[in-house]
Specification:
Helix content is about 45%, strand content about 20%. By secondary structure, the chain is α+β, with helices and mostly antiparallel strands. It folds into 2 domains: about 70 residues, Winged helix-like DNA-binding domain superfamily/Winged helix DNA-binding domain (Arc Repressor Mutant, subunit A), CATH 1.10.10.10; about 120 residues, Muramoyl-pentapeptide Carboxypeptidase, domain 2. Helix 1 packs across helix 2 and helix 2 packs across helix 3. The radius of gyration is 22 Å and the shape is globular.
Length: about 220
């Protein structure tokens, strides 16, 4: 039996909020390729100490990398640049490309085949991530699920309510493409079901006008493995 009282209510998982200073630092690194603390301080109009504080946070999030450089015989200094994860923060033409691909697929494949493809994608995504859940019971899987979804780009709140686990997705990285191709909704539902290894029911959906996407898992009587 799962002791749902040990699951915090609610658990809120969200990506770190942006700020004008952080955005300026990231944009400067994007435009210049690499910068020193002094250059970033001038761009953001703040002190070098403040820049270092922001850079430490950005490094901890995996958005910024640092390396030592030398100029002549002087002391080495640090050069900062964006990681691949940092580069992904900037808008690209992924939406247009994805939209065109899905339009072509819809024109040549039956609906059930398209859903099968998306389900396969979701299964591959979850298989690549849930290895860290091996050996964990359902209770511990629940605790780790919010972090995984946050890393996938969802802002998530998880709560238990009278033996029912409710997973609220307050924001969705697929929302824009989902408005034209709602088939993508199978991805997160399949991801959650595979991660928890229990049936999952979608009870609300942002694309249908609800405030968030909510999934329900019945915990009463579930065993913890």
């Amino acid at each position: 039996m799962i002791n749902i009282d040990t699951i915090p209510q609610p658990m809120l998982y969200s990506l770190r909020m942006s700020s004008p200073t952080r955005d300026t630092i990231l944009k400067s690194l994007r435009m210049q390729g690499s910068c020193t603390v002094k250059e970033l301080a001038e761009a953001a109009d703040i002190s070098p100490i403040s820049v270092r504080h922001h850079l430490s946070s950005l490094q901890a999030e995996g958005l910024v990398a640092v390396e030592e450089a030398r100029h002549g015989v002087g002391r080495p200094y640090h050069i900062y640049s964006l990681t691949d994860k940092g580069l992904e923060r900037f808008p690209r033409r992924y939406y247009q490309l994805t939209n065109h691909i899905l339009k072509e697929l819809k024109g040549s494949l039956p609906q059930e085949k398209l859903v099968e493809i998306f389900t396969g994608v979701a299964t591959s995504m979850s298989d690549a991530r849930i290895h860290q859940f091996e050996g964990l019971d359902l209770e511990d899987r629940i605790k780790g699920l919010g972090t995984l979804l946050s890393e996938e780009g969802f802002e998530v709140k998880i709560e238990n309510k009278d033996g029912e686990l409710l997973i609220h997705e307050l924001s969705c990285p697929y929302f824009r493409i989902g408005k034209s191709h709602p088939e993508v909704c199978v991805i997160d539902q399949t991801f959650i079901a595979n991660a928890l290894e229990v049936p999952v029911e979608r009870v609300t959906c942002i694309l249908k006008g609800d405030n968030c996407c909510t999934f329900s898992v019945q915990l009463e009587g579930k065993e913890g493995s």
